[in-house]
Automatic annotation (TrEMBL), chain A:
It comes from Oreochromis niloticus (Nile tilapia). Residues 61-180 form the PIN domain. GO terms for biological process: CUT catabolic process; nuclear mRNA surveillance of mRNA 3'-end processing; rRNA catabolic process; rRNA processing. GO terms for molecular function: 3'-5'-RNA exonuclease activity; endonuclease activity; RNA binding. Belongs to the RNR ribonuclease family. Component of the RNA exosome complex; within the complex interacts with EXOSC4, EXOSC7 and EXOSC9 of the exosome core complex (Exo-9). The catalytically inactive RNA exosome core complex (Exo-9) associates with the catalytic subunit EXOSC10/RRP6. Exo-9 may associate with DIS3 to form the nucleolar exosome complex, or DIS3L to form the cytoplasmic exosome complex. Exo-9 is formed by a hexameric base ring consisting of the heterodimers EXOSC4-EXOSC9, EXOSC5-EXOSC8 and EXOSC6-EXOSC7, and a cap ring consisting of EXOSC1, EXOSC2 and EXOSC3; DIS3 associates with the base ring of Exo-9. SMART domains: PINc, RNB. Its cofactor is Mn(2+); Mg(2+). This is Exosome complex exonuclease RRP44.
TrEMBL record, chain B:
It is found in: Cytoplasm; Nucleus, Nucleolus; Nucleus, Nucleoplasm. Its main location: cytoplasm. Coiled coil: none annotated. SUPFAM superfamilies: Ribonuclease PH domain 2-like, Ribosomal protein S5 domain 2-like. The keyword Transmembrane does not apply. The keyword Chloroplast does not apply. GO terms for cellular component: cytoplasmic exosome (RNase complex); nuclear exosome (RNase complex); nucleolus; nucleoplasm. This is Exosome complex component RRP41. One of its GO terms (molecular function) is RNA binding. Belongs to the RNase PH family.
Length: 944, 245
């Protein structure tokens, strides 16, 4: 079968080293076309009637893009219109070397069946392999290889001309020289632009064309605006010698002329370098990896506190920055000399339609203020105006004020709920597409039933009185509880967790998708599932009165809540009731009820109280943050009422047992796998984090000790001010802000396991496998530890696990941001329908020119500014000690009670925000008169 | 730079082979007349020369003499010009001592040593050019040399290296694959009976994969044995023509 011919490839790398590799040429590589009868292929990819209607090519044809076309026009290739494309191995390899993200996207396209992309391994085909000729550069050789392959294809397909109407192969290239040579060889060749413009049915594709380098020159003035970037080799030597620093570029949110570069040092000593001014920023975009050069010490500046938005003028803005700063406030300042790695992604935002009506070039303003405006070319500006669109950056030449980009797709009208939700998800990098067929194919077949094999390995716990307690409306129930008295007088408590790892097997597409998503994201009125709905709301959800597979953690506990025995087992349960927190609470309180479920709940509740006390004695913190719930209109899904979440005894009951299960499991998997247990830690915050808390408490003459978690918890408990019942809650909210983020990590890669907030030496997440991927891994580890399942290689690889943890932490953080953004958006919708409201609030922070007010009723935070552009600013004095702010005669302290009006400021459609203005205390010239508090009767009706 | 893609989506390896395909194997027996047996073997770009002396009386220290069987003495070496960098390779460095020992163990399992008590068989192998799979090439070359010397063996000993990439076992690794972070395994097999003469692996591999990997190695070894058998028959035919039998 193998007719091989040995060729020798010689390459020289680094010093002078001869590398000799074999290169086998084959005659069993098929063309992949449906029409071909000569090739003995089992399955074909390319269709017989390749229909892309083009005015240039009226016959059916296959496309062969060259490397540069793939690299720059990947957006075009991704479009569903473009299909039947041959990707040559030469192209694929070159793309792989030059851009990893494009390579990944290209591979995704190739895997999509409907796209009919075929990879032709031309380098190993006997007729299409060519050797590099003396004096020929690698690029020229590759171009020639592409031409040879195209030639081969056209001749190959010609032999079947009788049964097709002239199927042809079209080469797409943007390189003039290459095109000329191809034409000389008698090949069909077009420039990418020419071809895309000729597509009859799809004129909108033209907008997605990336600008190629020879077009760019015409749209910009010839004036050079930016200094040239240094070549990579020079940057590398510079970094090595220490004259340049490498870091991540972080643009400032408030000032487009300012940025910091975060330079990761050895261990702890990371530094930040300030960059100021357009020239020094030198075309770096947020999140790029850049090289910076420090300016001489005499040119160092302090970060300016002005808020500047790019209005296009530029010149006077730069002058505003030059404020004389005290020597001490100056920071290391530098300039960007080169970009090591661009981190461009498609950005969401809106189009600023050009003043000139006929113009096809417009500026695009991204939703993220840290991203500069992007110049794009489009013919559909009028339809795109008022819509949220996505745009990708193509490049930023040194003579252009803005980067050049192209339109990717439209998300829908701005301000519409679906659109805004989409923007929110995209900007927070939350994967939210529908699950692919490949993923769904790994779901169990319905109707699903528990098989006898399943039963063999599992304990039958169906007779137990198990019940679940969750928030109202919850469909993904991942935990259930039971409690019963044993014959020896002790109690048996069981926590039963949905056995998701039974359904999601390691390594398949479903598992990979879940690992990538990392967590379910809960937005207001919407849930972005981590696993398909069949699992999340049905098979895995521990609903009442159906048999479900579970992973159980069962303790024997005495009446003093001391754990005598712990055991883990896979099981089958049948929940007797799915209760809400309120229902469970009612059952416990109702003395007339004495059924099994109620008894079980009472037992649990009693134990939970003891457990909680013990935990608090050990120094666990009870912190507070205000969470709000929206009451949604059932038809329009608009928020009609806001309510802060209420906490009941049963909430803490469930929480207590979940904590207990998590800690028990963490201990078990760590004992079994000290190198690769997935755990969760919460580092203790550095003492300086508490400064604000201590100062705030001092202003009310309360002392807070922060030496340890225990001391902090005790002093928070003791903190009370007469006549101010809300003080304690406010203090706890402040304390929450001082904390660090809890993170997942792999036990083999770290030595500090302590969970500060829970005061536990070890902790993990076990109890919510439906909505968190970390729990699935923990389930697998535990299953291996008790011999209920087999291990697999990646589970035991601490580096792979550590990489997984990084992704989970990132997704977790992003999902929280997305949730907050969603709440903010709904709050805006709510206030939009409300008009103006008057509310009471407390001052949470005092700033230089503003106070930040918390409205407990809505859990809403807002800023009241005392200086605004259009008004004469009042006399403001800020004192660092305190901190206090004096406005005219009135002095604001932290925790003061104020009255404010709340309204929606929609002057900027991309960044709508809640505006607050002061009513009480009355300060002439600053506070506003209380508006009509009576909301129209029509709206009151809606409330009910 | 991104590392090398060892196995493409289309199922081709760096040099164009499919996962289970071996490199081109060429061999010649009886290359020297002074030695009792000799063979030259090329497996792709790895080239080895094997020479066998014996069985003969014990030389050197007589204390190593075994009363019931022959002693097998193996020596492995690499030519200075065998790799991309020219390097003097003194005898007795750790790597070649280990390799010699492995060869010795392999052939003790295959050669019918009990037929020659109190005697010694010397096997010398030199790598002329190295491109991965040195051990297996040495074993294959030495097998041919032993056969050329007319020493009875239970069966051919065939060896092959296999690696594990993307859940797929790759047969007969070349140097680029071996150094590309593949966990590789070397296996010497007596193909007819399916006995394993030597199994060597020092990379990390999950237990679940071991079986598939050994399976692939055995298939590869059987492929090698077919080629070797052909070479021996060819040689025999040529020899018989020369001697006029």
């Amino acid at each position: 079968m193998l007719k091989s011919k040995t060729f020798v490839k010689k390459t020289r790398s680094g010093g002078v080293m001869k590398v000799v590799r074999e290169h086998y040429l084959r005659d069993d590589i098929w063309c992949g076309s449906e029409v071909c009868t000569e090739c003995k292929q089992e399955s074909t990819v390319l269709q017989k009637d390749a229909c892309m209607e083009s005015s240039l090519c009226s016959y059916p044809h296959y496309l062969v893009p060259d490397t540069n076309v793939v690299l720059h026009q990947i957006d075009i290739l991704e479009d569903p219109v473009i299909c039947n494309v041959i990707i040559l191995q030469t192209v694929l390899q070159e793309v792989r070397h030059r851009s990893a993200p494009v390579y990944k996207r290209l591979k995704d396209i190739i895997h999509e069946k409907e796209k009919h992309f075929y990879t032709f391994t031309n380098e190993h085909h006997r007729d299409t392999f060519i050797e590099r000729e003396p004096g020929e550069s690698a690029n020229d050789r590759n171009d020639r290889a592409i031409r040879v392959a195209v030639k081969w294809y056209s001749q190959h397909l010609k032999t079947f001309e009788s049964d097709t109407d002239g199927l042809k192969v079209v080469l797409l290239t943007n390189d003039q020289g290459n095109k000329q040579k191809a034409q000389d060889n008698g090949l069909l060749v077009y420039k990418c632009e020419e071809y895309v413009k000729s597509l009859i049915a799809n004129p909108e594709l033209v907008d997605r064309l990336a600008l190629s380098s020879d077009d760019k020159s015409e749209i910009t003035s010839s004036k050079v605006l930016f200094p040239e970037h240094f070549p990579l080799s020079r940057i590398q030597t510079g970094i090595k010698s220490g004259s340049f620093l490498q870091g991540t570029f972080r643009a400032s949110r408030d000032n487009y002329l300012e940025a910091t570069v975060f330079v990761q040092g050895e261990g702890e000593d990371s530094t930040e370098v300030l960059i100021q001014g357009l020239q020094n920023l030198n075309r770096a975009v947020h999140q790029d990896v850049v090289a910076v050069q420090l300016l001489p010490r005499s040119e160092w500046v302090a970060p300016s506190s002005v808020v500047l938005q790019d209005e296009g003028t530029g010149k006077d803005d730069e002058d505003q920055l030059r404020t004389a700063a005290a020597e001490a406030a100056r920071k290391p300042t530098g300039k960007v000399v080169g970009v090591i790695k661009r981190n461009w992604r498609p950005f969401c935002g809106m189009l600023n339609v050009s003043q000139i009506k006929e113009s096809t070039r417009h500026l695009f303003t991204p939703a993220d203020r840290r991203i500069p405006r992007i110049r794009i070319e489009t013919r559909q500006a009028s339809t795109l105006a008022g819509q949220r669109i996505m745009v990708a950056i193509d490049g930023w030449p040194k003579d252009s004020r803005y980067p050049n980009g192209h339109f990717v797709r439209s998300l829908g009208g701005a301000g519409e709920k679906e659109t805004e939700e989409e923007v929110l998800l995209l900007e927070h990098d939350v994967p939210h597409q529908a699950f692919s067929q490949a993923v769904l194919s790994f779901l169990p077949k319905m109707p699903w039933a528990i098989t006898p094999e399943d039963m063999m390995k599992r304990e039958d716990l169906r007779p137990l009185t198990v019940c679940s307690v969750d928030p109202p409306g919850c469909t993904d129930i991942d935990d259930a509880l039971h409690c019963r008295e044993l014959e020896n007088g002790n109690l048996e408590v069981g926590v039963h967790i949905a056995d998701v790892s039974h359904f999601i097997r390691p390594g398949n597409a479903l598992d990979k998708e879940a690992a990538n998503r990392g967590t379910t994201v809960y937005l207001c009125g919407k849930r972005i599932d981590m696993v398909p709905e069949l699992l999340s709301s049905n098979l895995c959800s521990l609903r009442s009165n159906v048999d479900r597979l579970a992973f159980s953690c069962i303790w024997e506990i005495n009446h003093k809540a001391e754990i005598l025995k712990t055991r883990f087992t896979k099981s089958v349960i049948n929940s007797k009731a799915s209760l809400t927190y309120a229902e469970a609470q009612m059952r416990i309180d109702d003395t007339n009820k004495n059924d099994d479920i109620t008894k079980s709940l009472r037992g649990l509740n009693k134990l939970a109280k003891i457990l909680k006390r013990q935990r608090i004695e050990k120094g666990a913190l009870t912190l507070s943050s205000l969470e709000v719930r929206f009451h949604m209109d059932s038809e329009t899904h608009d928020p009609i009422d806001l309510q802060t979440k209420e906490l009941m005894e049963t909430n803490s009951m469930v929480e207590e047992f979940m904590l207990l299960a998590n800690i028990s499991v963490a201990q078990k998997i760590y004992d079994e796998f000290p190198e690769c247990a997935l755990l969760r830690k919460h580092p203790a915050p550095p003492p300086s984090n508490y400064d604000i808390l201590i100062k705030a408490a001092k202003s009310k003459e309360v002392e807070v000790h922060t030496d340890s978690a225990k001391a902090l918890a005790d002093s928070l408990d003791a903190a009370k001010v007469d006549g101010f019942p809300y003080f304690n809650t406010l203090l706890r909210i402040l304390a929450t802000r001082c904390m660090m983020q809890a993170v997942y990590f792999c036990s083999g890669m770290d030595s500090d396991f302590h969970h500060y907030g829970l005061a536990s030496p070890i902790y993990t997440h076990f109890t919510s496998p439906i909505r968190r991927y970390a729990d699935i891994i923990v389930h697998r580890l535990l299953a291996v530890a008790i011999g209920a399942d087999t291990t697999y290689p990646d589970l035991m690889d601490k580096h792979k696990q550590s990489a997984l943890c990084n992704n989970l932490n990132y997704r977790h953080k992003m999902s929280q941001y997305a949730q907050r953004a969603s709440v903010a958006f709904h709050t805006q919708l709510f206030f939009k329908s409300r008009g103006i409201l008057n509310e009471e609030g407390f001052i949470l922070f005092v700033r230089k020119n503003a106070i930040i007010v918390l409205i407990p009723k809505f859990g809403l935070e807002g800023t009241v500014f005392f200086d605004s552009k259009d008004k004469v600013s009042p006399n403001i004095v800020f004192e660092e000690e305190g901190p206090t702010l004096s406005v005219e005669q009135h002095k604001f302290h932290i925790f003061d009670k104020v009255k404010v009006t709340i309204s929606l400021d929609d002057s900027n459609i991309q960044h709508q925000k809640i505006r607050m203005a002061l009513i009480e205390p009355v300060i002439p010239g600053v506070s506003v008169p209380a508006p009509d508090t009576e909301t129209p009767a029509k709206k009151q009706k809606l409330d009910r | 730079m991104a590392g090398l893609e060892l196995l493409s989506d289309q199922g081709y390896r760096l040099d164009g082979r499919k996962a289970t395909e071996l490199r081109k194997l060429q061999a010649r027996m009886g290359v020297f007349t002074q030695a009792d047996g000799s063979a030259y073997l090329e497996q792709g770009n790895t080239k080895a020369l094997a020479v066998v002396y014996g069985p003969h009386e014990m030389r050197g220290s007589r204390s190593r003499t075994l009363h019931d069987r022959a002693v097998i003495n193996c020596q492995y070496s690499m030519a200075t010009f065998s790799t991309a960098e020219r390097k003097r390779r003194p005898h007795g460095d750790r790597k070649s001592t280990e390799m010699s020992l492995h060869l010795k163990q392999t052939f003790e399992a295959a050669v019918m040593t009990q037929l020659y008590p109190r005697s010694q068989i010397d096997i010398y192998v030199k790598i002329l050019q190295s491109d991965g799979g040195n051990y297996s090439v040495c074993v294959n070359a030495a097998t041919l040399a032993v056969i050329d010397a007319g020493i009875p063996m239970r069966d051919y000993v065939c060896a092959c290296t296999v690696g594990f990439v993307d859940e797929t076992p790759l047969a007969d690794l070349c140097y680029a694959e071996e150094s590309g972070g593949v966990s590789s395994l070397a296996l010497a097999l007596l193909p007819r009976g399916g006995q394993i003469a030597l199994l060597q692996m020092d990379a990390r591999l999950h237990q679940d994969h071991l079986e598939t990997l050994i399976e692939a190695a055995m298939t590869a070894c059987k492929g090698v044995s077919k080629v070797l058998d052909e070479v021996v028959r060819q040689h025999l035919q040529e020899a018989s023509v020369l001697t006029g039998e």
